[in-house]
Write a structure and sequence with these properties.
Layout: H1 6-12, H2 16-25, H3 31-42, E1 45-48, E2 56-59, H4 62-70, E3 75-76, H5 86-93, H6 108-117, H7 122-144, E4 149-151, H8 152-157, H9 159-169, H10 176-187, H11 200-223, H12 229-234, E5 237-238, E6 241-242, H13 245-276, H14 278-286, H15 291-302, E7 307-312, E8 316-318, E9 321-323, E10 328-332, H16 333-336, H17 371-385, E11 389-394, E12 399-400, E13 409-411, E14 413-418
Parallel strand pairs: 2-10
Antiparallel strand pairs: 1-2, 3-7, 4-14, 5-6, 7-10, 8-9, 11-14, 12-13
Helix pairs in contact: 1-3, 7-9, 7-17, 9-13, 10-11, 10-13, 11-13, 13-15, 13-17, 15-17
Length: 422
């Protein structure tokens, strides 16, 4: 890695396999983190030209990511939000993609965000906590019943947050497999084991299937509204007018997909981190009061959103570089969350880290709507798991998702001994 050029380092950000390896190893020697460290040091705002991708600026320092997030009047979400192949960008530019709230800019974004905001307030989280803790206990019980060995990702981590989201939306558990498959196909398009295919047409087909699913849900909740989040979205009004079917479906998509995939990645990555740092596992078990800071450290450590793109609305300066109107910048959250200027010993997993100014939930006006729910779920899971955990070890090689957007572990084989629940 010492011979890597800045050009090679920049192209690493557009390599799904590099992100898969980062999830497995998560140390300074991994190809992704070696590339990110090189750019943070030598060229923090770096112009990238990678085969198959439209060019972009890679933004690798914590301060610069914050600046772009803060200047949302200059750096806009539209038209290019996610780093993907150029043919996918072309498809979306031609009207081949449906927009979610994450694609919107002010003032449209502010109005759309308000629809679901009340469902994720501290008061709402207090009302939901009993249900979340019940589901956490249920899934740790399930883990205990698997005979002391399982793939923690497949059999535990993906199931718990998805059940929470289905519960919030008022959907039955019979929809679990369908929603899990569509989410994986959406976020794992670059992964041969998860994606439906890498072509723009196949990516579009996944999105169309998701939107068709939620169009049916919208019709049902408009005809028979209940007290769930799905009904609130289906019957929402913005500036006095109801959302159209595409706008409503787009809201469901971002809640149902981003609301569970990133959390499951953090839970699995958190278990992996504790396995690799047994001193921190002992520390957390001995002092449960560290759980809130441990949750923040897990989010920093995993940084499941690999990055978002923003597009400059006008010529502007960023750390001495001129970003021209129409050029895209990639906000690399895993790089920012290892910035040596912000985090002391950034490759040390520290359950008591404070302060912890991680960007795992983003920042600014686009700060993750479901951050409070994610924190509650992660905390509830580990507060249920750790008191019962007598032993845990790797039972095989972990594997990461090949992606340039949302990632983490796709396999974590573990062997363990769990005590009885309450």
């Amino acid at each position: 890695m010492t011979s890597m050029t800045t050009g090679e380092a920049g192209r690493t950000f557009a390599d799904p396999a590099a992100h898969a390896d980062e999830s497995r190893f998560n140390d300074p020697g991994s190809r992704f983190h070696a590339a990110a460290a090189l750019l943070r040091r030598d060229d923090p705002v770096h112009w990238v030209e990678a085969d198959g991708y439209a060019p972009f600026w890679a933004v690798t320092r914590h301060a610069d990511v914050l600046e772009v997030e803060r200047r949302d009047d200059v750096f806009r979400n539209a038209p290019r939000l996610v780093l993907g192949p150029a043919e996918y960008d072309a498809m979306r530019a031609g009207g081949g993609g449906n927009r979610t709230i994450a694609h919107m800019d002010a003032p449209e974004h502010r109005a759309a965000r308000a629809i679901g905001a009340s469902w994720f307030t501290p008061r709402a989280m207090r009302a939901l906590e009993t249900r979340v803790r019940d589901l956490a206990r249920r899934h740790v019980d399930r883990m205990a019943g698997l005979g002391g060995e399982c793939d923690l990702v497949e059999q535990v981590a993906v199931r718990f947050p998805l059940h929470v989201i289905l519960s919030l939306l008022g959907l039955p558990e019979s929809e679990f497999d369908r929603m899990l498959t569509l989410t994986r196909e959406l976020f794992g398009a670059d992964d041969a084991e998860r994606g439906r295919g890498t072509s723009a047409e196949r990516r579009r087909a996944v999105r169309q299937d998701l939107f068709a699913f939620f169009a049916d849900l919208t019709r049902d909740r408009r005809e028979r509204p209940t007290g769930d989040l799905a009904s609130a979205i289906a019957n929402a009004r913005v500036n006095g007018a109801p959302l159209d079917d595409r706008e409503t479906a787009s809201y469901y998509v971002i809640i149902a997909t981003a609301g569970h995939d990133t959390t499951s990645a953090t839970i699995a990555g958190g278990v992996h981190a504790l396995l690799r740092h047994p001193d921190q596992l002992r520390r957390l078990r001995d002092d449960p009061g560290l759980m809130p800071s441990a949750v923040e450290e897990m989010v920093r450590w995993v940084s499941p959103v690999r990055g978002f793109l923003r597009t400059a609305a006008e010529d502007t300066e960023l750390r001495g570089r001129t970003v021209r109107a129409g050029e895209a910048v990639l906000l690399s959250y895993p790089s920012a969350d290892r910035d040596e200027d912000v985090f002391t010993d950034p490759f040390r997993f520290d359950v008591g880290r404070a302060p912890n100014r991680h960007l795992g939930f983003g920042s600014g006006v686009h700060y993750c709507l479901g951050a409070a729910l994610a924190r509650l779920e992660i905390r509830a899971f580990f507060e249920e798991l750790l008191p019962r955990l007598r032993r845990i070890d790797l039972a095989g090689e972990p594997a990461g998702v090949a992606t340039t957007f949302v990632g983490g572990l796709k396999r974590l084989p573990v062997r363990y001994d769990l005590g009885r629940g309450r």
